[in-house]
Write a structure and sequence with these properties.
CATH superfamily of the largest domain: Glycosidases
CATH class of the largest domain: Alpha Beta
Strand order of the largest sheet: 10-11-13-14-15-18-19-27
CATH topology of the largest domain: TIM Barrel
Strand content: 25-35%
Number of domains: 3
Length: 557
């Protein structure tokens, strides 16, 4: 994307540019800032603009700070230091600062403002930057005036942070500031080779790219039949290519993501030719092509790419997104072999590794689950005696985490680098939970193989998903994966009752001494995936214990 372009109105920003408070820039706020902020900061703001016009009596001046940028980043401007006492910005207000982009810089996307923390000897991300109308200066919105300031850009091959979004969904709040591109699942091919659907209206910055996704798969009614017709001949392919280019050009987006999956083996060549022709025509129109492909499969004979020519597609496309591998039992052992194979087929700096926020269950089949669904399984409660009496000793059982019955319990699985648990149902099942911990270990492959970045296959603001974003944002800002593991104590089941007392429970079974008074009591089980805690409750009726009478005692003697 060229530097000048659409630039939405700037709002306030948090100090790290992630999930900060949204600030209105309406007339009332602007008027207040004009009376308070601008009046209060007239000297400071004038000094900034005066310096960048050529003087340096006060305000920001170029400094010879001899500190390298973080690994994976490059300076895109001089380092500036504020001389004198920086003015204070009133709480709830903000100020724009713009600085020139260094001559010779190839920066076109992904610029951010950083400050240097001398006590820590480290750079700290402040906020993302936007280009002015000339494309020669970068603008940021700040809630305080930093002592030092510099523009940086990712300079590693792992520079793309892509997000997939379904129509009608909104981006996760932690995703908005740091993504480089958004792919909206909007379009399907028609029987005549046309394009059906409307491009989602997603609020993006000028430096964030938008790729609507053109999809065909078995889950979309009629899509595979339409795809068969498109791939049937060279003329039908060319017609489809022309209609795609026309549609994308008219939509005013940056390119298109072609996600034609569930192909037959005999369509391998025809599909590769379609991608090759589409890449050429989009390039002529100043647009870009991304292609989403299922991951190759590792077999005993080697790597099976299926009906996809990764060589041709990898050369023709600007980016290739590899869909997530769901079966975690072989993920970490298979991925190195898959990536080694792909390194011989295409430039790996074009490849984006997909990461999913969904949990995965493996039994006879492998299926995706929302995190809430998985934790509903984990928090099922069973009471040993269906009708306990007062002053009784009763077992409370987390039926799917009961380690005394040979189940794993909730644990960090080193072999898969996920939080996981096993349970008995139809012969036994394993559930792997995706969250910030597992995401960090998947991002490890991005840096180890110098991939083009990562893609989140569902970046919506959905509380039922696992929370990947702390790891993803940290990776975007530092270029290094966070290989932290959850505290094992947080994964142990926790029990609570509204009467009586409880002992144990960490292995999935707690002993409940019931209260001396009959009544209905609540048993609560809390289980964590290391990030969020989930709970379930059940009501248990405790009956009065029947005491033997004296006659019965005497007769017994």
């Amino acid at each position: 994307m060229n530097r000048p372009g659409r630039r939405p109105a700037l709002g306030g920003s948090g100090m790290r540019g992630i999930g900060g408070p949204s600030q209105s820039r309406g007339f009332a706020r602007v008027a207040v800032m004009a009376l308070i902020v601008v009046a209060m900061l007239a000297g400071g703001w004038f000094a900034v603009t005066q310096f960048f016009g050529g003087g340096c009596d006060e305000g920001y001046c170029a400094t010879s700070l001899d500190v390298d940028p973080p690994q994976g980043f490059a300076f895109a401007s001089d380092v500036y230091e504020y001389r004198g006492d920086a003015p204070r910005i009133p709480e709830g207000s903000s100020i724009e600062i713009d600085i020139p982009i260094a001559e010779g810089s190839e920066a076109s996307t992904g610029l951010s403002f950083y400050r240097f923390l001398p006590d820590e000897g480290a750079w700290d991300h402040i906020t993302t930057a936007e280009f002015d109308e000339t494309g020669e200066r970068a603008i940021g919105v700040f809630e305080e005036v930093p002592a030092t300031i510099v523009l940086m850009q990712r300079d590693t091959p792992a520079g793309h942070a892509a997000a997939f979004l379904n129509p009608g969904d909104t981006l996760h709040p932690q995703a908005r500031d740091d993504l480089t591109m958004v792919h909206t699942r909007d379009l399907t091919p028609t029987g005549g080779g046309g394009v059906s659907g409307e491009v989602s209206n997603v609020e993006l910055r000028a430096d964030q790219e938008h790729f609507p996704v053109l999809m065909a798969n078995e889950e979309i009614e009629g899509a595979i039949a339409n795809l068969d017709a498109i791939l049937e001949s060279s003329s039908s392919r060319t017609s489809h290519v022309q209609q795609i280019v026309e549609f994308v050009s008219d939509a005013g987006v940056d390119g298109v993501n072609l996600a034609f999956v569930d192909l037959r083996d005999d369509q391998r060549t025809s599909y590769a030719l379609l991608v090759e022709e589409l890449g050429t025509e989009l390039d002529r129109a100043g647009l870009r092509l991304a292609v989403t492909l299922p991951p190759p499969e590792r077999t005993q004979e080697g790597i099976d790419p299926g009906p996809y020519d990764w060589d041709v597609i990898g050369q023709a496309a600007d980016l290739v997104v590899m869909q997530p591998i769901l079966d975690q039992s072989s993920y970490r052992s298979d991925m190195p072999h898959i990536l080694e194979y792909l390194s011989e087929q295409m430039p790996l700096n074009k490849l984006l590794l997909s990461i999913t926020p969904y949990a995965v269950e493996k039994g006879e089949e492998v299926r995706r689950l929302q995190l809430v669904e998985a934790m509903r399984i984990a928090t099922q409660i069973e009471v040993e005696d269906g009708k306990p009496a007062t002053n009784d000793n009763v077992a409370l059982i987390a039926r799917n985490l009961d380690q005394t019955e040979g189940l794993s319990g909730m644990l960090w699985d080193e072999s898969t680098a996920t939080v996981a648990f096993t349970y008995r149902d139809d012969g036994g099942r394993t559930v792997w939970l995706e969250n910030q911990y597992s995401a960090g270990f998947k991002l490890e492959f991005v840096t180890a193989y110098n991939l083009g970045g990562f893609a989140v296959d569902d970046a919506s603001d959905d509380e039922m998903h696992g929370n990947l974003w702390p790891a993803l944002v940290d990776f975007i800002q530092t270029g290094e994966p966070d290989l932290a593991r959850p505290d094992s104590d947080t994964l142990s089941p926790q029990w609570e009752v509204t009467g009586g007392s409880i002992e144990g429970g960490q292995r999935g079974v707690a002993r409940w001494t019931t209260p001396s008074e009959p009544g209905t009591y609540t048993v609560e089980l809390r289980v964590s995936d290391g990030v969020f805690t989930f709970q379930s409750q059940t009501e248990v009726t405790v009956e009065q214990r029947e005491e033997p009478d004296d006659a019965d005692d005497a007769e017994g003697e």
